[in-house]
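User: Some background: our group keeps a shared notebook of sequences we're curious about, and every so often someone picks one and asks for a predicted structure to add to the entry. Today it's my turn. The entry only has the sequence so far, pasted here. Could you supply the structure so I can complete it?
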Amino acid sequence: MAPWALSDEQREYRRVLRQFAEDKIGPRAADVDGRGEYDWANFESCRGMELPALGIPSQYGGAGADHVTQAVMVEELARVCASTSLTMIISKLGMIPVMLAGSEHLRSTYLPRIASGEWQASYCLSEADAGSDVAAMKTRAVRDGDSWVLNGSKYWITNAGISTTYTIFAKTDPPAGHRGISCFVVERDWGVKVGKLEHKLGVRGSPTGEILLDDVRVPAENLVGEEGQGFYIAMATLDRSRPTVGAQAVGIAQGAVDYAGGYLKQRHQFGRPIAEFQGLQFMLADMAMKTEAARGLVYKASAMIDEGDPLGELTLAGAMAKCFASDIAMEVTTNGVQLLGGYGYTSEFPMERFMRDAKITQIYEGTNQIQRVVMAKRLLG
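Assistant: Of course. Here's the predicted structure to add to the notebook entry:
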């Protein structure tokens, strides 16, 4: 059996999650998008299902689920509400550096709180002038006795103002370029401020904004890994988070496929269901086929994480999964709008929301142009 084929337990988990998502999350999705605000009710529903615990090791209060199962969870939430799926993704992303390189103190302090849903976390790498070019960051961390003092700002931060902790990358040795970046876990109450919040095209129920650091004092023990390891921790984190973004894209695409299929059977033109028109049948078939191909790449990359990446192929596989799945999500949702015609262009139907939500998956966790750079470097040595 292929390592990314679902087990009976995973199939049953998908069934349970789909029912939960359709009953509790889906009915609120349009309202969440329309208000453009974080939805605590959806978060608490997910917390009741213990979803924040899914990707946290069991020794720290989590479920310790494999990454394919985590991908299934993200898919099923994104199928009905991409904003809610992002709510479940982001805290895990903020804690991946801790799980990869953090001390036992950091793991035992923060992971149980994230697993329980008591706290949420954000991942703070990008800046206004340092997106794809991480080494251009200007945020500084200066050692002062038993503390580090952080100054600067971080941009495009998911969960800004909601999270209790922020995993922040800052330069501790600016002349060293990317080798002078370090990573810190910073609690909100230590002085983290929220600047501008963005008004966005999609995933509007998940806040994105600027994080401001003005002489924020962080205990030395909250350094993740060693000084100067931040860039490598960040890249290893993205290798493990990109398949999850791919899963989100697959979920959005699947939502579009499912809705379009139902619409084609219900909508009548020329005296019969438009599902009988072969041109439209072929569009739907292509949408489903490409979504399934994307799902295979996502599951393969997810399985590699669980295997420990023995062949060193995760960077390539993760970039492929994220890039392909997000490109397909954009194509599938655009075609979904076309299948619904004028109705697809209105907010009374979910297809235009699927299309708006799909777009961000081509941008965050590294744009798809950067993913192609990553792939080319791996392929060409």
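Suggested note for the entry: DSSP finds ten helices and ten strands in the chain. The beta strands are 121-124, 140-144, 147-158, 165-171, 181-187, 193-197, 208-219, 223-224, 268-269, 272-273.
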